[in-house]
Amino acid sequence: MAFISGASRGIGLALVERLLVTTASSVVASGRSVAASAELQALKAAHGERLTVLPMDVGDEESVAAAVGALPAGLEKLELVAHCAAMMHPSGRGETSIARMGPDKKGGAAMAATLAVNVVGPSVLTAALWPRLRRKKSELDAGLRPGAVVAVGAGVGSISTNKAGGWYSYRVSKTALQVRTMLVLLLMPLLLVLLRLLLRLLVLTPLPQALMMNLSIEGARAGVVAYTLYT
Question: What is the CATH number assigned to the segment(s) 2-201?
Fold first, then answer.
C-alpha cells in the first residue's frame, strides 16, 4: 500500500492516479481538501476499495495522528510514503521583497506556517508511519522489499543554483527538506527503509501559477515546464 500526502491536486493527485492505473497496490490519498476533490471521487468510483480517501492537515500534528490512526484495519506494512503536500506561502504568493518578512506583515508567522507544512509535517508523518515502513533483516532476507519514503523537493531550494532570490519561506523550506532527508538517511540502518528526495523544476500545478508571469518558458514536456530561471 502507498500513502500519498497532498493528494487532492497537482503532483500528489497525479501520483495517486498513476499508482492506481499502473500497479496493483492500494493507495491512501490524504490532504486537507481530499473530501472535496472531484478527481479523487472519480478515482474512488473507478477503483473502489483500492483507494482510501483520508482527510489530513500535514501541518497539524493532531490531524496527522488522527489520520494514521484511521488507516485501514490490518495494515501492517507500507510500500511507499510520498510527501507531496506543499505550501508556497499562506497568501498564495512567495515573498518578492524582504519587507514582506517584517512584523507589520506577520512575515514570521507566514514562514512558520510554510515550514510546518513543507518540512515539519513530512517529518512528523514519516515518524508516525515508520513502524509500517521499517523492515526486519529477516523480512528482507525472505524477499520483502524495504518501504520507501519519497519527499518532493524543488530546484529553488538549491543554494548553489539559486540565482533569483525571493520566495524566502518556500525556498528555505525546500532547502530544509533536503537537509532533513539527508540527516535521516545518515542515521538509519542500511536498507531497512529507502529514502529518496526528488528535485524538480516547476510543474504546471496551481501552486506556482502566481509566479509564471515573471518567468520565461523554455520548454514543456509531459506537464513539466523548464524556465530560463534555472539555466
Answer: 3.40.50.720
